[in-house]
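Q: Is it fine to ask for two folds in a single conversation?
A: Yes, each is treated on its own. Send the first.
Q: Here.
A: Result:
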Amino acid sequence: MHQWDHIDRVMGVGSIEQLQSITSDYARALGFQHHGYAMKLLQPISHASSDYFFYQDFQNEWAASYLSLSRPEVEQNDPRILQARAGLPAAAWNCNGRTSYSPPRGSHHHIAVRARKLVQRAGEFGLRSGITVPCFSPGLKWAFMTFTHDHVLDPREMLPTIVSSVYFVSCLQASIDRLMRPGAALPSLSPRELEVLRWCAVGKTSWEISIILCISERTVNFHIARATRKLQVRGRQAACARAVALGLIIL
């Protein structure tokens, strides 16, 4: 099964249990051995007392670390959480402390320092390389997904998996919202914003969309930026994924 087929599956998922199974299948399709997802809500889910949700399939003591992620002292120091809250992009890493993205010194540099320590510690538990994808959605305090390898890879070797993984995780987050927080009001996008997003979702660049719609490339980017803000996500990929998952656009 192609990795994009897993994205189609996650969009139509009917339960959290199915979502976990699909995530495992997706991770294996990309060559990863394990994965972990965690999210903290701004407010508790109406039918539950907790504002924290996670699932993972690690087979050692690393799994236990997910139980503590919602504690305030952990939230203030865990680099995956800090990465998500700061709006930093997805990154590949290995247990030697190498990453595909390092914030400039003076700009979230402390997150990079803590991230290097965390991935080196992860290596002690057999998590020797992987990618971490922050999630963004209305009502979230923070969320992230991590996919890991049991062997050491250069972060540059994992860069091709980041693009599809960002899209997959954006769709997954939208499905989690639909399953766990039903009834939320849909964002109101203008016809032009929906039109532009629809073309983005099928892979057209801003320049190509400007030619198709006979508008300037700057106007295309303006509509994408407005739609992204209304959907409360970061980046056009996440905006497209969320719009599709919410049924605002149909491919």
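Q: Second one now.
A: Result:
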Amino acid sequence: MLFGAGRCVLGVGIWALCVTVPQPAVGAAGRLASFRAADGRSLTGLLFEADSRPAAAVVLVPMLGRSRDDWQAVGQQLAEANVTALAIDLPGVALPGDPEALAAWHHDIISAVMFLASRPAEVRTDAIGIAGASLGATLAAVAAAADPSVRALALLSPSLDYRGLRIEGSMRAYGARPALLMASLQDPYAARSVRELAQGAAGLREQRWSTIPAHGTLLLQRDADMVRSLIEWFQQTLG
């Protein structure tokens, strides 16, 4: 069951990224950062910057039907823990009918990783991770599998199969790099997905459980222990 719905940098293959970092603030919780995807679209995220830089950094990916704002509190706490965070939106609110088209949404995550990596004075380019929730977790795994520069993953309420887009192959391709797998025990499909993804993995697959009935970023809003686990994970794996 699924819940809820300028500077240019050359990347791998066809990827080319042009980035700008506007200065206007977005409240006390972050500021807008704009960058371009390979297809020319302008992408915008919320950037939460660590005080001591260059710092490790994490891209935060929401669940379907939710926005990057779901990550506000986590992004701020990561920055306070000296991990820069960039929260982005999914490319759309309606799912493509073709699983391959849905998988292509991961390119925006890679663009976000490239944006962070293009700022070596602020970000340690060898210490970038991704955290995703629900569909965002699936897309995070696809992006990390495609980009060997991603050093750590955190998957919140992952699904083995999200509308035909399966995660196992991406996690196998991710290899021995570490992943944190998180779910509520009251979320049966996500819990089963966590257990199966942890079995026989080539690298560390740390599991964290909550007893609170919630899914994706909503679980982080309701269980402070899960937030602490997420922050500690990236502190440990990204250094």
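Q: Anything structural to flag on that second result?
A: Two points. The radius of gyration is 16 Å. Residues 20 and 90 are 20 Å apart (CA to CA).
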